[in-house]
Amino acid sequence: MRYLSTRGQAPVRDFSSVLLAGLAEDGGLYLPETWPVLTADDWRALRGLPYPDLAARIIAPFTAGCIAPDVLQRLCRESYAGFDHAAIVPLTQVEDGLFVQELFHGPTLAFKDMAMQLLGRLFDHVLAERDAHVTIVGATSGDTGSAAIEACRGRERVKIVILHPEGRTSDVQRRQMTTVLEPNVTNLAVQGTFDDCQDLVKAMFADAPFRQDMHLSAVNSINWARIAAQIPYYVYAALALGAPDREVSFAVPTGNFGNILAAWAARRMGLPVRALCVGSNRNDILTRFLRDNDMSVQGVVPSLSPSMDIQVSSNFERLLFELLNRDAAACARIVTEFRQTGHMAVPDPVWRQASGLFHALALDDQDTKTEIRNLHAASQYLADPHSAIGIAAGRMFREPGIPMVAMATAHPAKFPDAMEQATGIRPALPPALADLFDRPERYEVVAARLDVVEDRVRAAVLKNA
Ligand SMILES: *Cc1c(COP(=O)(O)O)cnc(C)c1O
């Protein structure tokens, strides 16, 4: 499989190169040159497979030519071996026609582990083959960073530097990152928002000499391999609920548009997906876009669901590229203008397609707490604030006879204050993280300035080089 950039000015690459590169040199995002499409019989043949084997089968077309299928299967089995639920991605019914799929049974209790555990292993495999080293640089609004650090800690060929917005992640989220003391891990607390962090990471990648000297690589949701690794759980849920002989809908709490893009990809691969529902918090750029074709940046407002406190959903560029029938020049023009003006002028036919494909619901913090409380009262299900938003979106757009699956993206114990306010219950951390608040932390506070951050990355790379 070969990959091309959404902006059309970067070389076409294979899977391993895309894995290591993350962002394309032209600032675009990589997508597969062609989409693998499965027939109804192909889908049926996947029914009943254990999750890791199903994942390997779904991901295989994307890694074809780079990773042997038996290696991929081994990596998938290793990736999910440490999950604390036998089903890996268990499905629970919470209401008539409304299901929850829990994606938070990995080491950091959030859905990012689903992709990141595999990514760490893919990096190891590809770097060993090439006898190479990389420096992973990433921005996180909470969960990406800890999942990336957890996937990379102690790995010989990888240094990892994670930027998080100071004071804007939950204590649990911060501590999951800053209590990892392996020397290949560096945490930077940036005085700014998540978007500032993301802009700094993008700027480092745009600094070609720096990027080359430091062997920069990304594992945030612009990395194609992460999207690929998120497709299988949609397939798993759909097959369990009757696909390909029955349609299924999905509701996804959304920030960077990565998780829901994987649902879209599953649909593009021929899975009978009916509705795709986006849930967001007060940072509702996607909802405004899908309702009114208003993609305009407003300030980021902190919320109870910090992993969705995002105004620029990077992965949207991939959808835009597809909806523009892969017109890279048009895509580059629209996205560049958006970066300059803060307003995205999406052509009307493209917007109509998008708003026909996706439903959207935004919940403020008050409504999120009400959703958590009502759901718990009615079905004893404890959903964290992110998951609750997805569940509310799923309920709103569910249709008779079509199962709606809402993605539960974080364990409620990651957000104990919000849970307690909503339900009076303070969920306990699972045993593996029970002493999190007793562990020492290590991180540096830095200004949101490129030169400052590049200095810190350089120091991290030189350390024990
Ligand atoms: C990252 C994250 C999201 C948002 O996912 P995207 O892929 O950025 O849309 C939602 N919920 C939780 C708990 C997350 O960690």
Automatic annotation (TrEMBL):
Keywords: Amino-acid biosynthesis, Lyase, Pyridoxal phosphate, Threonine biosynthesis. One of its GO terms (molecular function) is pyridoxal phosphate binding. Pathway: Amino-acid biosynthesis; L-threonine biosynthesis; L-threonine from L-aspartate: step 5/5. One of its GO terms (biological process) is threonine biosynthetic process. The modification N6-(pyridoxal phosphate)lysine is found at K112. Residues 2-80 form the Threonine synthase N-terminal domain. It is an enzyme of class 4 (lyase). It catalyses: O-phospho-L-homoserine + H2O = L-threonine + phosphate. Its EC number is 4.2.3.1. Signal peptide: none annotated. Residues 98-329 form the Tryptophan synthase beta chain-like PALP domain. Belongs to the threonine synthase family. This is Threonine synthase. The lineage of its organism: Bacteria, Pseudomonadati, Pseudomonadota, Alphaproteobacteria, Acetobacterales.
